[in-house]
Amino acid sequence: MQKLLMTPGPTTIPEAVKLEMAKDIIHHRTEEYSEIFKELSENLKCVFKTKNPVITLTSSGTGAMEASVTNLFSKGEKVIVISVGNFGNRFIQLTKLHGLDVKEISYKWGESAKPEDLKKVLSEEEDVKGVFLTHHETSSGVLNDVSAFGKILEGTEILFVVDSISGILSNEFKTDEWRVDCAISGSQKGFMTPPGLAFVSLSNRAQEAMKKSDMPNFYFSFAKHLDRLAEGQNPTTPAITLIFAANVACQLIKKEGIDNVLKRHKKLQILTALGIEALGLEFFVKNSEDRGSTLTSVIAPKGIDGQEVNKLMQEEGVTIAGGQADYKGKIFRIGHLGDVNELDVIVTFSVLEKVLYKLNYREFEIGASLKAIQEYLIKNI
Amino acid sequence: MQKLLMTPGPTTIPEAVKLEMAKDIIHHRTEEYSEIFKELSENLKCVFKTKNPVITLTSSGTGAMEASVTNLFSKGEKVIVISVGNFGNRFIQLTKLHGLDVKEISYKWGESAKPEDLKKVLSEEEDVKGVFLTHHETSSGVLNDVSAFGKILEGTEILFVVDSISGILSNEFKTDEWRVDCAISGSQKGFMTPPGLAFVSLSNRAQEAMKKSDMPNFYFSFAKHLDRLAEGQNPTTPAITLIFAANVACQLIKKEGIDNVLKRHKKLQILTALGIEALGLEFFVKNSEDRGSTLTSVIAPKGIDGQEVNKLMQEEGVTIAGGQADYKGKIFRIGHLGDVNELDVIVTFSVLEKVLYKLNYREFEIGASLKAIQEYLIKNI
Question: Do A116 and A150 touch, CB atoms closer than 8 A?
């Protein structure tokens, strides 16, 4: 059996995407390259559900997050950063690092952000220039209601920057309808492509803000990227193989249909939840409505180190993710995004049961999780 | 026949490197990944000829050039930037953009930098914190004598930052012996790997300067990269497939032997020069000692658009590079670096003769370039 990557990025890569990278490379300053990059850029707009341009950076998602701060704001400007975990905290770090005046709205890990809290801070603070929000928080599995936050910003000129690095394609995301000015994603999550690319959508409002920013940018200059986007070019040498791979992945996504991709992820989330419940395990995200379809985070049973669960599962050929920061060892995270299907969930629970049993967690009937998943599968044919 | 990439990056990729990227991806927060990344980091030290750490960034070379400015210097510090072309000019742009006090030493494109000019400026300027130099200038094919500049800096605390993005592996480069504090390279040149990675060596002096810099860095923070280097990890998600590909490429380079790789490139340079002379064409770099073994830049014959030469050659399956900036259309550049050999040069000249003939440049005996190359090959068996 092929090793299984049930992690929230990098994800398992479809064969066609892998083989694309093994092809002879072509030079990027050619029409052939430009045609493919143009196609990718259009595909990204389709996935982001936006009419605005989506630029592609050669970097991880963090590079794009930092670039959103340095391209769209000026030093001293007031912004509100909403954090529900590790990656929300990264926005706090980045905005502070670059000299913005940061008002934080932070939540306990595992809880989602409340729109009324943003309303309250907005009523107290004057001259807010931007709001930063995480769509899906990879560290906990919490999904924020981006749409509700966007509604609050209607009628204002406040920039809405949303990290949907692990959110998009496993959860509904509507850039324009939700009034998102700058949406950020990465190649190694829902896009089923290896890491190395970040995607950034820019509304007119974001593009206007970009012109006024006083921070220096060269490699990450959004303006330079936008300048060359229409001709299918990049300001500096792009990660050509990854761009071609991402384009093939987008073709697969379009073939499956974005709605079907979303439905598949929702189903995988349901199956995983059934398995977890059948094993008597506890969800880290208490409120089921706050859980995304990207991953399921689970509290390690009493006396069991979450890292051990990961380690033993990896030895059996299934890689899941551990907890981050304070939650290292306390939770484990089962990713179910990218090129995965229901059989991968079956395999994952077969291994999880075995590993938990080995670690002396035996509060379940052997096979219970597989039975629960199987029942759903057969009753929903 | 496979299409031939005679460009100064991206270069033709060896089969083993291409196939490496088509393998199943693994997660980067695993021991398996760390082992490979550690191996790559050691291989890079070997190629850079340095005892200092070499960090790997997910970005193009420009990203690393910008990062060398923002990590190693503070605003207002005085630096000398030596430019012999497009990429030297990029260092001027980057240092100015980030608020350094920049003293420029610029040369006409096609000429190499003179060590005595640096000596002179150093004697006139006080408190110089850094010197920026391009090893091999990709825009013109000029090779600078890094060693001679390094000697001038002996006994000072001035940081020596060298862009060897297209220089290393096709031309001798000795980081430590030449007193280079920060050497920069990229995956898509001598490393025979697709673009997307940049490599940066950091001397103790550079690491000390890093601690004093007042500029904000997160994604490109050298400190964050150094912190995790020993454990074989990266601060954010790295371009995993490219890292594995670069490691396989380094294995191939070590197998061939770095000295043999350099000799091969020197030979390709000689063969290309013989071909150019046999066609009665003019070198853009007048002084033969100033030419690197990365590429050969050629002045387009009178009345012929250099871009046309490129275009027609590409139609015949051989991609070369055009002129940049003011030299667009005026020169063309034949890359001979990476996974190329003497037969690739033969093929290139077969196509070049044909294309020049088509464009009505006929100041040569048909087959003259092939004959000249062939004579060298047979007499040097």
Answer: no
Residue type at position B17: V
Contact A242 B3 (CB under 8 A): no
pLDDT, tens only, A277-313: 999 999 999 999 999 999 999 999 999 999 999 999 9
pLDDT of A3 over the 90 cut: no
Whether the CB of A319 is below 8 Å from some CB of chain B: the reply is yes
Average model confidence (pLDDT) across chain A:
97
Name the band, by pLDDT with cuts 50, 70 and 90, for residue A2: confident
Q: Give the residue ranges of chain B where pLDDT is below 70.
A: 1
Q: Mutate which of B11, B58, B200 to disrupt the A interface (most A C-beta within 10 Å)?
A: B58
What pLDDT is attached to residue A1?
65
Distance from CA of A108 to the nearest CA of B (A): 23
Q: Give the Cα separation of A310 and A304 in Å (integer).
A: 11
Minimum-distance CB partner of A27 among B10, B21, B236: B10
CB contact under 8 A, B10 and A22: no
pLDDT by residue (tens digit) across A195-231? 999 999 999 999 999 999 999 999 999 999 999 999 9
The mean pLDDT of A72-86, rounded to a whole number, is 98
Interchain CB contacts (distance < 8 Å): A and B? 174
> Do residue B236 and residue A61 have CB atoms under 8 angstroms apart?
yes
Give me the domains of chain A, ranges plus CATH numbers: 15-255 (3.40.640.10), 257-379 (3.90.1150.10)
Three-state secondary structure call for residue B27: coil
The mean per-residue pLDDT over the stretch A326-330 comes to: 95
Burial (Cβ within 10 Å: 0-12, 13-18, ≥19) of residue B171: buried
Closest CA of chain B from A212, distance in Å: 16
Query: Which residues of A are less than 8 Å from B9 in CB distance?
Result: 237
Alpha-carbon distance of A245 to B8, in angstroms, equals 23
Buried b vs exposed e over A150-165: b needs ≥16 C-beta within 10 Å?
A: bebbeeeebbbbbbbb
- Whole-complex ipTM: 0.96
* Whether A320 contacts A306, CB under 8 Å: no
Q: At what angle do helices B240-256 and B31-48 cross, to 10 degrees?
A: 50
User: What pLDDT score does A152 carry?
Assistant: 98
List A133's β-bridge partners, or say none. A162
Peptide linkage before B10 cis (omega within 30 of 0): yes
- One-character DSSP codes across B43-99: HHHHHHT-SS-EEEEES-HHHHHHHHHHHH--TT-EEEEEESSHHHHHHHHHHHHTT
For residue A9, the chain B residues in CB contact (below 8 A) are 237
The answer to whether A325 faces chain B, any CB pair under 8 Å, is: no
Across A39-46, average pLDDT: 98
Beta strands in A17-123 (DSSP E): 54-58, 78-83, 101-106
> Which B residues, 60 through 99, put their C-beta within 8 Å of a C-beta on chain A?
60-63, 66, 93-94, 97-99
